[in-house]
Write a structure and sequence with these properties.
This protein is 37% helix and 20% strand. A hairpin with a 4-residue loop joins strand 5 and strand 6.
Amino acid sequence: MSIAQSLAAAIGADQVITDPEIMRGYAHDEAEWAPYGTPAAVVRPRDTADVAAVVALCAEHRVPVVGRGAGTGLSGAANAVDGWVVVSFERMNRVLSVDPVQQSAVVQPGVVNDDLRRRVADDGLWYPPDPASAPWSTIGGNVATNAGGLCCVKYGVTRDYVLGMEAVVGTGQVVRLGRATAKGVTGYDLAGLMVGSEGTLGLVTEVTLRMRPLRTGVEHTVVGYFDSLTDAGRAVAAVAASGVVPSALELIDRFCLRAVDEWKNMGLSAEGEVLLLARSDQPGAAGEQEADTILGCFQGEGAAYAVRSTDAEEAEALFAARRLAYPALERLGPLLTEDVCVPKAQVPYMLARIEEAGRRFDTHIGNIAHAGDGNLHPLFIVPAGDEAAKKRAKEAFEVIVDEALALGGTVTGEHGVGLLKMRGAARELGPDVVGMHRAVKNALDPAGIFNPGKVFA
């Protein structure tokens, strides 16, 4: 009996897909040029018991298994290899409970990020992590990659909001990790270990998340146009040095903004080469003062034009354009996305090195960034079918990884290692720490079935 037949017998044929055409859509995430194969089956479980049964069968037959959320990942972490089983959590998409007193929520992994935000707002709560893919990405995928987003400069990333979880590990055991209380220090932080593990240690089937009180009041938006990436980078460093922690500080270059305009006809193309968007969500006079400080930093670092926006609709449109930059560029052809993060003081130097890599390898690189925390997303635009250009882009990609490490940074701020960053991750971690990772994986995944060959070789 094949693994697909065994799965159908165990959890029901209606939850197992074997049609190659349908499976093709589940076989990979959005990471350009990351390899993938044809799964043996795609499973769409309805509950934790189904997931446990799938893992037990895969462990018995030594068939690798990879979890999948919405497939919006950009590192290849959710990609299947020939003969693997893909577990799609699209049917496990319920908000199970919201506790306004404890300021927490319990959710299944298939809940879409923005859907959760809307649901908890009804109880006066707010879930801060907000990746640009928030309208489509799921909490399970956010947990797997420790996703960040526009607000993380002030409010942190997914790991900062995970209190506990239920997961299927080992050969099908269901465990609860972490806690539901505001505090708790019993044992190792195994829940934190699972966050960002990219499916290599188990499959998360339920998450308990910390919330914050819903923000009220008007956010103060500051817009700055700059003539170069390095000028914009110096403004970012100046904001950090001022002591202000904005609720968002985003960068988008003219090429990316024009792509959004051509797609959505928003009429927002920048007058300068680079646009910085900053926000303060401090209430009252404190917010006014923060916005004035940010404006002064922009002007002091040579902004061609900088202003505090008084038009809330226009400000929202600019931030919407930032979120739409990646899908707008995807329309132009194959798009390889970087995700390096450097210390905030190093942002201008990293941006200069990105520009130099583009010139050196004759590669067009667009730039968007969560600039306020040093998380930069160079975007490599390559004409379809141009193999020479593809090769140059890959070379530039690796050089930028090395440059980030040279500046004291990391190879990934929020997208994960997956398949694309394994060389850089090995260099960043070093052999001793990679060995520790392997020891942890071997202990928690004795059958070696959870997303093998990802993160580290």
